[in-house]
Amino acid sequence: MTATKDAAADAVVAATNRLYEATRTGDAATLTELLCDDLGYFHSNGGNDEKSTILEKVSSGLYLGVEKIDFQPEKVWVVGEVAVVVATVITTGMVGEHSVTGRTVSSLDVWRHLDGRWQLLAHHLTLKG
Predict the structure, then answer these.
(1) CA gap 54, 56 in Å, rounded
(2) Phi/psi at 84 (5° precision)
(3) How far is 113 from 124, CA to CA, in rounded Å?
(4) Structural domain spans, the chain
(5) What is the C-alpha to C-alpha distance for residues 94 and 106, in angstroms, rounded to an integer?
(6) Phi/psi at 81 (nearest 5 deg)?
(7) Is 100 left (phi over 0), alpha (psi -120 to 50) or beta?
(8) For the CA atoms of the chain, what is the radius of gyration?
(9) Residue 13: phi, psi to the nearest 5?
């Protein structure tokens, strides 16, 4: 990777860490910045959301019981104004009344650089066995 692509990859990883922390702490304002208006968000249980429904869930406090989200990026590709991130994500705590401690998923994220910032365009989770 070139220095420019390395810097972009680092910025996307930092944005992903901000996204998970904002989700965990109920910070809807930060999520509003980080999520594309056209977001497609696909959960490991087969459900899906868009930006407005993710913001509703976060604002309701659904994720406040999550103690930790361990984001482990494995590969980041940056092509122009688009970045793709493959990672493992391990969660500890509760989502609503459901324990997610030890839940390990593979994550595939597509980020778009728009108006000077990286925004999540698509997020897909697959439960690891």
Answers:
(1) 5
(2) -120, 130
(3) 19
(4) 3-127
(5) 19
(6) -95, 15
(7) alpha
(8) 14
(9) -65, -40
Contacts of 78 (CB under 8 A, 6+ apart): 1, 5, 8, 9, 12
Q: Is the pTM of this model over 0.85?
A: yes
Encoding tokens for residue 63? 């994720």
* Exposure b/e, 103-117, CB count within 10 A at least 16 = b: bebebebbbbbeeee
Helix ranges (DSSP H) in the chain: 3-25, 28-34, 51-59
- Amino acid in position 114: L
Question: pLDDT truncated to tens, each residue of the chain (129 aa)?
Answer: 577 789 999 999 999 999 999 999 999 999 999 999 999 999 999 999 999 999 999 999 999 999 999 999 999 999 999 999 999 999 999 999 999 999 999 999 999 999 999 999 999 999 997
Between CA 18 and CA 66, with CA 103 as vertex, the angle to 5 degrees is 45
Q: Which CATH class is domain 3-127?
A: alpha beta
Whose structure tokens read 């990286």? 118
Largest CA distance in the chain: 45
